[in-house]
Amino acid sequence: MEKYVGLASSYLNRELMGIIMSEKVMKDKYIIDEYGQKRLKDVEFILPICVGTVAWWQGKKASEHNTHKWTVYARGPNNEDLSYIIKKVTFELHETFASPRRTIEQQPFEVTEAGWGQFDIGITLHFTPDARESEVTMYHMLKLYEDDGSPNTLKKPVVSETYEELVFSEPHEDFYNRVSCHVPVPSTVLMSQAAWVPRHDETAELARLQAARAKIANLAASDVRRPLVDPMS
């Protein structure tokens, strides 16, 4: 089955500028997908999104199996309301947790738990019905300790966040027309750790991603140009 939604980090040489709607002038405006549905040809819609964790050391309350209280989340880069595209989010915790699969159907899209170990958390984004797209899953490592080895403190949490972009390639026309006219608004319900998550300069983030893609493309091109050497010569 062909996939029409993916993370921008898996794409090379995309022209990006915030939420991008790029459309080429084509004789044929549509393509027909495997289900017989019309999609807009050579059109993209990009949704910036952040996933991350905020972990608090429990101090004197800590025990062998409960050293930290933490929250995993998915949010807009500046806490925008994502409900116009994201219908629900499923968090896949470590199998040792009771009911490790948690589905959150309204904002804030977050789960709070307590424990002692770091592990990868699966974060699956489910889209609004008019998108008619399969869900997308990404992974984020729960981080309980600072990289520099600094001691735990009760004054501030350990924050780990990743900025990503969801690329909707050749979307359905009704979905594209709706979301392309959407004006971002703040979420009406703040996430529990809103005071600690970073704010993002989307222009800088997009430039960083574009530079990374260009570097990968250059490395790939240099591999193509590199002459073959006979190891026996």
TrEMBL record:
Highest taxon of the lineage: Eukaryota
Pfam families named in the record: YEATS
Protein localization: Nucleus
Chief place of localization: nucleus
GO BP annotation list: regulation of DNA-templated transcription
Alphabetically ordered keywords of this record: Nucleus, Transcription, Transcription regulation
CDD domains: YEATS_TFIID14_like
Any one GO CC term of the record: nucleus
Record has Transcription as a keyword: yes
InterPro entries with a match to the protein in the record: YEAST_sf (IPR038704), YEATS (IPR005033), YEATS_dom (IPR055129)
Gene3D superfamilies xrefs: YEATS domain
YEATS domain residues: 39-182
Name of the protein this chain belongs to: YEATS domain-containing protein
